[in-house]
Amino acid sequence: MPPDSLAATFAAIADPTRRAILARLASGEVSVTELARPFDMSLPAVSKHLKVLERAGLVVRGRDAQWRPCRLDAAPLQAAAAWLEGYRSFWEQSLDRLETHLRDLQETEAPHGPRT
Amino acid sequence: MAPAPDLAAPPELVLTRVIAAPRALVFRAWTDAAHAARWWGPQGFTTLSCAIDARPGGRFRVGMRSPAGTSHWKQGTYREVVAPERLVFTYAWEDAAGRPGHQMLVTITFAEQDGRTRLTLRQTGFESVESRDAHQGGWTSCLARFAADLAPA
Questions:
Q1: Rounded to two decimals, what is the model's pTM?
Q2: What is the mean pLDDT of chain A?
Q3: Residue B100 lies in a domain
Q4: Who has the most CB within 10 Å: A48, A49, A86, B65?
């Protein structure tokens, strides 16, 4: 996926209302009117959020001119999660070194302290 | 196929580690450059430079050299510094031209546990409006460049 898509994904899901919209869409496709109901929001306000989600590729709108149902596409979220997972090894190795550093430090500072 | 993500929460990386050291010391190891230079980075990496100004709004910038000889620089800004329990900072790798890539947000909590310290690290992708607007699209290469240099875990 191109880098800008991932940036758009993170920007889109930074907003709790948009995350709630995605959660709602997880149970199936719905119309904008239906989508707006539980959020106590105006249709233009919901449409604005939907546009952000559409640009990020998280929501796909149907072609039916009358209804245009909204559907979730979770692939960008999975890509974002996979990208974060790429950092696990960096942090695990850093924390290993942190533990070693602190153990050495405490042994130096307390040479007669308990050893195992 | 990957499991369905939790749609109500942003994707995040979470790590927990119980460290045999008092909480104040562990916190200091994160916020004092002389300590951080000794451990912040993967196995086999050496620290070229480590500048840390751990206070809200303060910045850090750290340079590392990989075993293969490539330099990597990371930088960020502290959002919260609550000694000895909590640290929140933004985090980005610089590309070869020194431009910061995609910003992440890292939250570290330090909890006392029987004289030891339970450290929890959360990292989320984080895109502020200004960083999105200034975005050059170079951040995937920052990670790719970095990942290529990571020693096997």
A1: 0.79
A2: 86
A3: yes
A4: A49
Interface touch A94/B42, C-beta < 8 Å: yes
Cβ contacts of A96 on chain B, cutoff 8 Å: 43
Over the stretch A36-69, which tens digit does the pLDDT of each residue have? Answer: 888 888 889 999 999 999 999 999 998 877 778 9
Residue A40 sits in a domain whose CATH number is: 1.10.10.10
Residues 6 or more apart in contact with residue A33 via CB below 8 angstroms: A43
| Chain B contacts in chain A segment 43-102 (CB below 8 A) | 72, 74, 77-78, 80-102
Q: Do A94 and B40 touch (CB under 8 A)?
A: yes
Bridge pairing between strands B59-65 and B71-82: antiparallel
Here the ipTM equals 0.83
* Contact between chains at A102 and B19 (C-beta distance less than 8 A): yes
B14-47 residue pLDDT tens: 999 999 999 999 999 999 999 999 999 999 999 9
What is the number of structural domains in chain A?
1
A101: closest CA among B119, B120, B37? B37
